[in-house]
Amino acid sequence: MGNYKSVMKQLKGKKNKINKFKKHNKPIKRDYGKAQSVCRQCDRKGRGIINKYGLKYCRQCFKEIAKTLGFSKYN
User: Which of 27, 58, 64, 66 is the most buried (most CB within 10 A)?
Assistant: First the structure.
């Protein structure tokens, strides 16, 4: 996403090139799939998101917060 914004700054004032760039490179809002699931705490997208019980945390954040949420680790 950051790369998209930097290119838009470079094309400032070039209407035709901006329109062509937007047509082919604009980020798409997804309604399903990996791109839809985002961590509540750190905004990581895609893989490693725990959606069970409505948690919506990535595995790294879940590991930090698990004790406070009442989860315990079994051996």
Answer: 58
